[in-house]
From TrEMBL:
Residue ranges occupied by any DUF5060 domain in the UniProt entry: 3-70
Protein name: DUF5060 domain-containing protein
PANTHER family in UniProt: DUF4038 DOMAIN-CONTAINING PROTEIN (PTHR37836:SF2), LMO1036 PROTEIN (PTHR37836)
Source organism per UniProt: Ligilactobacillus ubinensis
Pfam family for this entry, one: Apiosidase
Domain DUF5605: from-to ranges: 448-506
Occurrences of domain Apiosidase-like catalytic (ranges): 99-389
């Protein structure tokens, strides 16, 4: 009898037909039963006559499995497995906790410290391995990544493998926005027939990420497409989602992002704005594991700097959290309060030197965003876009993965270490009203620990009147950029002046006196 650790992956493999179209003509569903709990899980065709059903058990004990299918070879197959206790390193999937923040399923705190490497899993093998090595050296616990390959500036190399049978009718060594306006006559893929090896490659790296403690924030659709994957239409979008979710819902570190820049897809004539609600409901309905699910907006500052009019309606019940592209990070507490859901600023301008405004932030600017977003109760996502020359072929982290060449990630690692060392399972935003708009402050829920970040501001003194009136705090002085620490030789209270050296990126870590 098979034993499966809680939140790990059970898999049943069956032999079945290879004739016809197994992706569209064969139905396979398994019922999983455990002590009154009954869950239906769809199977999928994995090529070469193999059919699979996967499930991530979330309850310990004995599970009975029975299939039903329109094909005799797959119908009424049974199995029994035991779900065993999770080991101490297995905290389960990340879930929403307390409505406005995250934790792992076992209750361990989780604050999103993300990064971005969109199409890293379709790069050459040496770049994929280099990406994993870079992630291992840093403290990111989430990565935004696409299922499909990407076509854009600095992204004109064709992948070694495609997700569908067929091939591109047109390719180009240079990028032009008109390439995204691919006509149906120029699409060379059969969207009814998947290439299992493409998805097996994706699965391999999702598992590698899980081994590193990193969540895979999977972007299901995106507009950066000259192959036609963004123009499959409702019928094949549905088939793709059903196949993808059947394959990946059993991976505990998967998150679903319906789209990167969903509204840009409408402007490009790919997927209309009114289609996303049914797409979101479909992903939710198909996923027996209930993974986190969101959708991400385009951001053009001349149009969107002072408003959120192009955001998707995050109040939709199938949306678990906000995935936002915006650099107005002061408003994070407002958005948390308004939507009563966790907020992640998944794009806030990348550290880099390319010619686009979204990719030429400084290392200090990238670091500053992390401190301000996270201390205001949100999650933050890093990105890097350094090039060695115009039109370079060298991998760029934001799109290809590989190496990091910047300096912000070292300070982001340092920040995460501070939170872990001081017991922050999540952040309660402080000083969100009144005269403290220039700083960012957050506390533990019990108010025993506060962190106050001053950024580029250099006050000689502050009155931290947002602290609890009756308490005194010992203070440690941190420099977020230099990564230095010293003790502040004074007690800090809500009504007394706190003196500070005039340096950029001062941070106070306050600990309540017993």
């Amino acid at each position: 009898m098979q034993k499966v650790e809680k939140w790990k992956r059970y898999e049943m493999t069956l032999d079945g037909p290879v004739d016809g179209n197994p992706y569209t003509e064969v139905s396979l569903i398994a019922e999983f039963v455990n002590n009154g709990t009954k869950i239906s899980v769809k199977g999928f065709y994995d090529g070469k006559g193999k059919y699979k059903v996967r499930y991530m058990p979330q309850k310990e004990g004995m599970w009975e499995v029975k299939t039903r299918s329109n094909v005799a070879e797959l119908n009424e197959k049974t199995d029994i497995f035991e779900c065993t206790e999770a080991n101490k390193e297995n905290h389960g999937p990340v879930v929403v906790s307390g409505k406005t923040h995250f934790s792992y399923a076992d209750g361990k705190g989780y604050i999103p410290f993300g990064t971005t490497a969109y199409a890293w899993t379709v790069q050459p093998e040496n770049i994929r391995q280099e990406t994993l090595a870079t992630l291992k050296q840093n403290k990111f616990n989430k990565i935004r990544m696409t299922v499909f390959p990407k076509n854009y500036s600095y992204n004109t190399e064709e992948p070694e493998l495609y997700p569908y049978e067929g091939g591109p009718k047109k390719t180009a060594d240079t990028f032009d926005f008109d390439d995204w306006m691919v006509s149906s006559e120029d699409i060379g893929f059969d969207f009814s027939r998947f290439i299992p090896e493409y998805f097996k490659n994706l699965e391999r790296y999702i598992d590698e990420l899980d081994n590193l403690g990193i969540e895979a924030d999977l972007i299901i659709f995106h507009p950066y497409d000259h192959w036609g994957f963004a123009r499959m239409g409702k019928k094949y979008n549905k088939l793709y989602i059903q196949y993808l979710v059947a394959r990946l819902a059993s991976f505990k570190n998967v998150w679903w992002s319906l789209a990167n820049e969903y509204d840009l897809m409408d402007l490009c004539g790919q997927i209309r704005l009114d289609e996303w609600d049914s797409i979101g409901k479909l992903v939710q309905d198909e996923d027996p594991s209930g993974h986190l699910l969101s959708i991400h907006n385009w951001y053009d500052p001349p149009q969107h700097k002072d408003n959120t009019k192009n955001w998707y309606d995050y109040s939709k019940p199938w949306i678990t959290h906000l995935s936002v592209q915006n650099d107005n990070v002061f408003n994070v507490p407002k958005w948390v309060s308004e939507y009563r859901k966790p907020v992640i600023i998944d794009e806030c301008r990348y550290e880099g030197n390319i010619e686009f405004g979204w990719g030429d932030n400084t290392a200090k600017g990238m670091m500053d965003f992390f401190w301000r977003i996270i201390l205001r109760g949100g999650g933050a996502t890093h990105g890097e876009t350094y090039i060695d020359k115009p039109n370079t072929k060298r991998p760029i982290w934001w799109a290809h993965g590989g190496k990091l060449y910047g300096d912000s990630q070292k300070r982001i690692n340092y920040f995460k270490d501070i939170l872990d060392k001081n017991g922050f399972s999540y952040i309660v935003a402080q000083a969100t009203e009144g005269p403290h708009w220039e700083l960012a402050a957050g506390s533990t829920p019990d108010l025993k620990k506060f962190i106050v970040y001053f950024g580029e501001n250099q006050p000689e003194f502050e009155i931290l009147d947002f602290l609890p009136k009756e308490k005194k705090y010992s203070a440690q002085l941190i420099n977020a950029w230099d990564m230095t620490e010293s003790k502040l030789n004074q007690k800090v209270t809500a009504n007394e002046v706190t003196y500070l050296p005039r340096n950029e990126f001062n941070v106070l870590i306050l600990t309540e006196d017993n």
